[in-house]
Amino acid sequence: MDLTLTLDFGSVTPLQAQVFDQVREIILDGQLKAGMALPPSRLLAERLRVSRNTVMLAYERLTAEGYVKARGTAGLFVEPIPPDSLLLIQRGSRSLTNGPVPDASSEPLLCFAGSPGGGGDRPEFDFWVGRSDPAGFPLPIWRRIVLRLLGKETAYLTDYCDPAGLPALRTAISTHLRRARAVAVTEDQVIVTTGGQEALNLVFTLLKGHTRQLCIENPCYLGASLIFRNAGLAIHPVPVDGDGLRTDLLPTAKGSLLYVTPSHQFPTGSTMPLTRRLALLRWADETDSYIVEDDYDSDFRYDGPPLTALAGLDGGRRVFYVGTFSKSVGAGLRLGYATVPRLLWDEARMLKARMSNGQAWLEQAALAAFIDEGHFDRHLRRLRQVYKARRDCLVAVLRATFDGAVVLGSESGLHLVWRLPPGFPPARQIQSMARAQGIGVYALSSGAAYDFDPEARDDMLVFGYSSLTEMQIEAAIGTLHRMLQAPG
Ligand SMILES: Cc1ncc(COP(=O)(O)O)c(C=O)c1O
Fold first, then answer.
1. What is the pLDDT of residues 406-442, one digit of tens each?
2. CATH fold of the domain at 15-87
């Protein structure tokens, strides 16, 4: 059969690709049917006024991808089932293949999917909580490490990693935890996970059989509350104050699992003092309970030395430590970890295998090298300076603009809370007013937090400051001030 192809000699698409595309289309259209022969390459090349090599390269690709097959010296013949039919199980519009689109979820998403393709529509000045600065990502070093890894150790691209995580990364994490958080673990106690959220799921599933009731800070992190509220077990929300979780209000019944954020209570930001941490450990012993310590943003402490983690005080008996690189490096990596007592590591590893059979190799290997080669420590030191300056700026501007504003939880982490004075509109109302001005500030109920008390006072605004410059912070608070002063 004669093939009618039209080549564009001025196009950036190579001629061989144009031949390939057009012959493929003709096959898929059904003009060239199964069993029909392609014209000999020399003939087609002459007709198209291109080199024979161009046609041969296109034919080789058609053969390699399964559109045609050589029959000895007789030439190339169209295959009965084009490979596209094997790939595309169903053609059709999105609505036909996906079914009806449900109404918007009433539950806020954990993350604010603001990245390209994430569907988020960010305000110009966005104080979204706990977002590491995109400009602070160590791109040149990361790129160098990734290219180096891809240049030599690529076996894991086609093979499986240990479901517990790449040994080099587990070692790097355990070394970091021993040095920075006084948590004495070794690599055979670490399970690498898809962010902190999967680590929370993993620990919860591991301990569920032992658990009679769940205890959780109130207010608390939405992600933890989602797991606990769906567990089918009794929940005791435990109030928090300026020193974190009220240990005196914990239940005395045996067999609890407690979720707690002692370094920087989420969302209120309080830091739990040593006496309360010790009381918590005593409670766990006395009630035969376990604790999940979520240490999500403890790499950023600005006003003093790091505090020993609860897991460091406990010595690996009752506290399961959960960490994440979402704040310190970037949430897009989706890398976190849980530490478990050695006795439970095999079970935790099996569980992780059951859940997802391990993590992607490249990100793990790059992160391990990033930590081992000292880049992580340098990166943290640099970011601490940047974030501290932003924190100082936000606190100073809030206090100066709103007459001694009460600011909570600013000693560490990536967010703080402004407790609104009496007479101010509710936080949710300020949130929507600010949004109309291009400013994202968040009431607790929208800021990845959850309150078990539906009547709770709506007087806290959460400010994540890590991804805004000082100039942006000043401009945004200025606008907020004018907005709140405007009549009616
Ligand atoms: C309190 C708290 N815990 C854990 C996480 C874990 O996040 P990821 O799943 O991104 O590691 C977050 C993230 O915002 C958080 O705020």
1. 999 999 999 999 999 999 999 999 999 999 999 999 9
2. Arc Repressor Mutant, subunit A (1.10.10)
Whether residue 118 is predicted with pLDDT greater than 50 in this model: the reply is no
Q: What atom in ligand 1 is closest to the CA of residue 322?
A: 4
* 142-374 CATH pick, 3.30.450.40, 1.20.950.20, 3.40.640.10, 3.40.50.920: 3.40.640.10
Instruction: For residue 195, give the ligand 1 atom closest to its CA.
Output: 11
Read off the pLDDT of each residue in 312-336 and give the average, rounded to a whole number.
94
Q: Whose CA is nearest to atom 12 of ligand 1?
A: 296
As annotated, the residues of the chain forming the CATH 3.90.1150.10 domain(s) are 125-134+378-485
Length of the chain: 488
Tokens of 272: 């739990």
Q: Residues near ligand 1 with C-beta < 6 Å?
A: 130, 195-197, 221, 223, 261, 266, 294, 296, 324, 326, 331, 336, 448
Q: Given a cut of 50, is residue 254 above it in pLDDT?
A: yes
Residue to substitute in 327, 337, 466 for testing ligand 1 pocket (most ligand atoms within 8 angstroms of CB): 327
In ligand 1, the atom with minimum distance to the C-alpha of 224 is 3
Specify the CATH class of 125-134+378-485 in words. Answer: alpha beta
CATH 3.40.640.10 in the chain, residue ranges: 142-374
Pick from 440, 447, 433: which is nearest to 467 by CA? 440
Contact 447, 371 (CB under 8 A): no
The pairing of strands 442-443 and 415-419 is unpaired
Distance 324 CA to ligand 1 centre (A): 7
Residue nearest to atom 6 of ligand 1 (CA): 196
Start and end residues for every CATH 1.10.10.10 domain found in the chain: 15-87
**Cα separations in angstroms, 274 against 257, 279, 286, 310:** 21, 9, 18, 9
Q: Which tokens hold the place of 44?
A: 């087609």
CA of 50 relative to ligand 1 center, distance in Å: 58
